[in-house]
Amino acid sequence: MAAGLKVLFVSSEVAPFAKTGGLADVAGSLPKYLQALGHDVRVVMPKYRQVASSGADLKQTGMTVYCNIVERTVSANVLESRLGGSVPIYFIEQDRYFDREGLYGTSVGDYEDNAERFIFFSKAVVALCEEMSWQPDVIHCNDWQTGLIPAYLSILYRDSEFWGRVGTLFTVHNLAYQGQFWHLDLPMTGLPWDVFTPEGLEFYGKINLLKSGIVFSHVINTVSKRYAQEIQSQEMGHGLDGVLRARAADLYGVINGVDYSVWSPDADRLLPVTYSAKNPSGKRKCKEALLRAFNLDVDLDRPLIGMVGRLVAQKGFDILAEVIDEIVGSDVSFVLLGTGDERYESMFKNLHSEFPGRAGVSIAFDNKTAHLIEAGSDIFLMPSRYEPCGLNQLYSLRYGTVPVVRATGGLDDTIEDYDETHGTGTGFKFEPYTGDALLACVRRAMEIYKDKKAWSSIVGRGMAADFSWDRAAKEYEKLYRKALSKMGRGVPV
Ligand code: ADP
Q1: Residues 306 and 432 in one domain
Q2: Given 62, 72, 429, 487, which residue has the most CB atoms within 10 angstroms?
């Protein structure tokens, strides 16, 4: 094996310390698998209020970093813990920025000083490596909150002895969230005005931190092959398709893995009963527990459709709204767990009053219930308008819960449509983004559900599918080596 690399993994959220979505799951698992491949991996994130309440064992490192924000010097303490018991993770503690109710905002909206918060975080990450005298081979940045770091290395530190040979990989987990801010925030970044051009981080008169990551990193990837293609189209490029096309030679797609030590029904400590493909009886007990948890009629033969996710337009709730009454009105039970836009929250609250015994809704962020829905449902519904990778459909496969998904992004890459003739497939897919197509697909699944033999063959194939991080971690390793080869280091792979 080639020599291990020193990899700094930077993320604005890392499970189990603080989480709003899939990024935290990725950041909480990939570093462990990279370490298992022999790399020296260290993780950095902000110390939010949630980190303190996560029960993590935090230790003071005694290190303090100092960053300039225009004319002020702002300092941060650095705390330390271990991810998965073995990967060092550092927390940047500056309570004025991070000791708040939410990570990025509240239900009212984003925090107004998000530019300053994440400019500070990015500077603190750079300062931390210097403070530790730990020179990474590669910095792996994730999403807009870290998009300035590649710009710092490429513009401010190009000739520095410490930083001049460090490779950068930038992973786009969701192109829709770009970190766009007023141009007069630029001085806070410490970058010169000559980066404020269409070739740099200017975007329709604003600064765009995601664009900064895309433009200034050596290598870029997104979290599925199909999404890597889709975002190069005008229709799905969120205004950055041209920038992405310009970097197409360095843009890759790597499907996320699943941390099966957390998401597997045979080892899931959050479930009332565990089960496996060989010993599946516990799944029915989870279904019963789920129906009871949502106060629904306990009819175990009726198919149960589950959903978990952020209640935002991306997830397909507008087309679901068109047909949800028809779906729940037929002979199914339905449960949903999520938080997000007010309009979707009230849509689902109404549904519960309309179908009290059959539709259960929890407007909350609740990890234990998320696990119970994966285990207790028969069908997991993800009608997303777009989906960079999607994790819940992968969890569903392992839990023997059949995904019904729209054929987009990672959903398309990971779910194989059921084919009756050949007896293949792990779920049900539909393509047009319409309520009718969604309804027809759910009906098709419900029809097959009645055929117990066919259904258990779909469940069996899903449970046997392997989306472990081992494979994805090896792909990331290749991307790190590609980034290094751009610096004239190592052999291209
Ligand atoms: P995204 O990153 O777009 O939110 P993913 O499918 O990639 O979507 O990942 C979502 C992750 O967040 C999953 O682990 C899911 O279980 C979790 N999640 C989303 N909403 C909730 C919620 N309300 N309660 C608990 N977990 C949630």
Answers
A1: yes
A2: 429
Query: Does residue 341 share a domain with residue 208?
Result: no
pLDDT in tens, 94-119: 999 999 999 999 878 899 999 999 99
What distance in Å separates the CA atoms of residue 149 and residue 126, rounded to the nearest whole number? 8
CA distances from 396 to 118, 155, 363, 427, 447 (A): 34, 44, 21, 10, 19
243 Cα: distance to centroid of ligand 1 (angstroms): 28
- For residues 312 and 340, the answer to whether their CB atoms sit within 8 Å is yes
265 within some domain: no
145 Cα–ligand 1 center, Å: 19
Same-domain pairing of 231 and 368: no
Which of 104, 308, 397 is the best mutation target for the ligand 1 pocket, counting ligand atoms within 8 Å of the beta carbon and taking the most?
A: 308
Ligand 1, atom 20, lies closest to the CA of 309
Q: What is the CATH number of the domain that holds 46?
A: 3.40.50.2000
Q: What is the pTM of this model?
A: 0.94
Atom 12 (ligand 1) nearest CA: 21
Same domain, 414 and 478: no
Same domain for 65 and 51 = yes
CA of 360 to the centre of ligand 1 (A): 18
Task: Identify the residue whose C-alpha is closest to ligand 1 atom 24.
Answer: 365
Looking at the domain assignment, is residue 176 inside a domain? yes
Assigned domain for 493 exists = no
Structural domain span for residue 290: 281-466
Beta strand segments in 346-435, E: 359-362, 379-382, 402-406, 428-430
Residues enclosing ligand 1, CB less than 6 A?
A: 21-22, 25, 308-310, 337-339, 365-367, 370, 389-392
Which protein residue's CA is at the shortest distance from atom 4 of ligand 1?
Answer: 21
Centre of ligand 1 to C-alpha 486, Å, is 35
With vertex at residue 409, the alpha carbon angle to CA 404 and CA 412, rounded to the nearest 5 degrees, is: 45
Is residue 311 within 8 Å of residue 346, measured between CB atoms?
Answer: no
Cβ atoms of residues 214 and 240 within 8 Å: yes
Q: Which residues contact 458 (CB under 8 A, 6 or more apart)?
A: 402, 418, 425, 426, 427, 448
What are the C-alpha distances in Å from 153 to residues 70, 169, 247, 482? 19, 12, 18, 17
Residue 223 alpha carbon, nearest atom of ligand 1: 7
Kindly report the protein residue whose alpha carbon is nearest to atom 8 of ligand 1.
Answer: 22
